[in-house]
Specification:
heterodimer; A: mainly alpha; MetI-like fold; 11 helices; B: alpha/beta; D-Maltodextrin-Binding Protein, domain 2; 2 domains; five-stranded mixed beta sheet
């Protein structure tokens, strides 16, 4: 029954996308919109074919994926243990709260000048931009996920003689993991939004670079293709992430 | 009878004077023109025209709107937020290649071949020595075009023979100092600062650009452009703007010191540095514009070659017919 529902939703989704693309194509072909402002989907497609042909599209996509994944993974590796720690201990949460509040609203772009001074025009600087753009929000997600564990469960475990480490391993981690994973999925999307900032300086490859360079030459089809590629890449990574989630958290299925 | 005849003669004279004045100084239909500029030297005439009241003299107010890059300025012009602008030719050619007729060109105001170039470490003696080095240039700019040309002249492949880094001009001094790059292509005022960095020297400037040697056109010369719809709706306003603009060009040529006094407010340079920049520019007066833009139109021919160059180096997709974008009626 559920599979039938999913299949139906998929067909409706594909149909609505096709209708949208057809209307868009027709509007452009009728000359209702100047191609400079909005190129037809067929033009974006032919740009994609051209860039696949010369290998540029794959190279740009792989360069950005590597930057996002490295920045995001480092951010997650730091944020998960630190977030669980802060979520479990109110005192330390209070100590770090002002700093997290200060970091949280900073857009990734604001880190460009400092990251350039600290790390130069290296790849590390680009990873750092993704890291800074995704670290504080990830941390907040993880703190909230940890805080939301029912205190009764923790007390019950303690009463049954569980040590702090046991409580962490047997109660807090399994209890907060579904929410942490859900948060990380959202954060992966946010990490991708940092790619434009990351590739703004000293990049000659990547989807962010491709978009910005296309903008300089008024190649709106290239700009749109870059945007579409970011969305497609995020969708693919999301599917992989879901499979990983199913293996890691079989009890949530 | 004699009195009547005299009065008639005076009346005719007054009417004729008024008629001529109307023809020469027809009142602008719109009193405020939005100009797209920046602190780049190509915008000096517009700034001087505003500060020295030259536009006001023709019944015009000009609002100077700052943009960081030519692409942003041209994008705003096409979108209808800017009426008149000066732009680097590359942006204009890229827009022409995109097929939009939303703008027209009516002049070129300056030549600055010696204030843009490639600055390299002293051990890099010539273009060939760039092989294996790290060379920075802001992509999609005139400096980038110069780099591509110099590399081609020296049979160097930008993809294989060296590391070409996309870097903004203002980020170059730190990168050069830290040794992250070995050479960089920049324009004034950063160009002058980079040139004075110890251990570095000028490798090439725009005069080595292949099209400069043949057509006297640099890798990204300045071009004056107007929004097509604006030019059609307000022809007198455009004429008044062109008049005021080229009066400012004349003032920059004949009295640079007086102009520098007002330009420092735009550029934030010291008076001495401002004068040094002004000395490096050759201003092109209004009476030379027809020869450059229409007949024989050597500047337009040069632009056409530049468009071919951009296609050859994979920067744009097709070669536009540049002449189709010249607003001949506005060329002074």
């Amino acid at each position: 029954m559920k599979d039938h529902q999913t299949g139906k939703s998929l067909i409706i989704g594909i149909a609505s996308l096709l209708v949208f693309l057809t209307i868009w194509e027709l509007v452009c072909r009728k000359g209702l919109i100047e191609p400079l402002f909005l190129p037809a989907p067929s033009k974006v497609l032919s740009r994609a074919v051209k860039m696949i042909d010369n290998g540029q599209l794959i190279a740009h996509t792989l360069a950005s994926t590597r930057r996002v994944m490295v920045g995001f993974m480092v951010s997650s590796l730091v944020a998960i243990p630190f977030g669980i720690f802060l979520g479990s201990f109110g005192f330390f949460r209070a100590v770090f709260d002002p700093f997290i509040s200060l970091l949280r609203p900073l857009p990734s772009m604001s880190w460009i000048p400092l990251s350039l001074l600290w790390l130069g025009i290296t790849e590390t600087q680009k990873y750092a931009i993704v890291f800074m753009g995704s670290f504080a929000p990830s941390l907040l997600y993880i703190i909230e996920a940890t805080k939301n564990i029912d205190p009764l469960l923790i007390r019950a475990a303690r009463n049954l003689g569980a040590s702090r480490v046991d409580v962490m391993r047997e109660v807090i981690l399994p209890g907060s993991l579904p929410q942490i994973i859900a948060g990380l999925k959202v954060m992966l999307g946010i990490a991708w939004t940092c790619i434009i900032s990351a590739e703004l300086v000293a990049a000659r490859q990547g989807l962010g670079f491709m978009i910005m360079n296309g903008k300089e030459y008024f190649q709106t089809d290239t700009v749109l293709l870059g945007m579409v590629m970011i969305s497609i890449t995020v969708l693919i990574i999301d599917v992989i992430f879901r499979r990983f989630e199913r293996r890691l958290l079989p009890w949530t299925q | 009878m004699k009195k009547w005849w005299k009065r008639g003669l005076i009346a005719v004279a007054v009417l004729m004077t008024a008629g001529f004045s109307m023809g020469a100084y027809a009142q602008p239909e719109k009193v405020t023109v939005v100009y797209g500029g920046s602190s780049w030297l190509g915008h000096y005439p517009a700034w001087v025209g505003i500060e020295k009241g030259l536009f006001k003299k023709h019944g015009l107010g000009v609002l100077f709107q700052n943009f960081y890059a030519s692409s942003g300025r041209m994008g705003s012009l096409v979108a209808g937020d800017v009426d008149v602008a000066s732009t680097g030719c590359i942006s204009a050619i890229a827009l022409m290649a995109a097929g939009t007729k939303a703008f027209m060109a009516f002049g070129t105001q300056d030549s600055y071949a010696t204030v843009e170039g490639i600055i390299a470490k002293e051990d890099i003696k010539d273009g060939k020595a760039l092989k294996g080095k790290r060379l920075a240039a802001p992509f999609a700019s005139s400096a980038h075009v110069l780099v591509l040309d110099i590399l081609a002249q020296n049979n160097l492949d930008p993809e294989k023979d060296l590391t070409l880094i996309n870097l903004k001009v203002n980020e170059m001094p730190a990168a050069l100092r830290s040794g992250e790059i070995d050479a960089c292509a920049a324009w004034t005022p950063h160009f002058n600062k980079l040139l004075h960095m110890p251990g570095h020297h000028l490798l090439v400037d725009d005069t080595q650009f292949s099209l400069y040697q043949e057509y006297r056109i640099g890798p990204g010369p300045d071009l004056l452009v107007v929004r097509t719809e604006f030019a059609q709706q307000y022809p007198n306003t455009c004429r008044a703007f062109v008049k005021g603009y080229f009066e400012a060009v004349d003032l920059l040529t004949h009295d640079p010191e007086a102009c520098a006094e007002v330009l420092v407010k735009l550029t934030h340079l010291s008076m001495a540095d401002q004068m040094a920049v002004l000395r490096d520019i050759t201003w092109i007066p209004g009476n030379q514009q027809k020869a450059l833009m229409i007949e024989p139109g050597e500047f337009v021919t040069g632009m056409q070659q530049l468009a071919r160059f951009l296609v050859k180096h994979g920067q744009i997709d097709n070669v536009p017919h540049v002449k189709d974008w010249i607003a001949e009626r506005l060329v002074p």
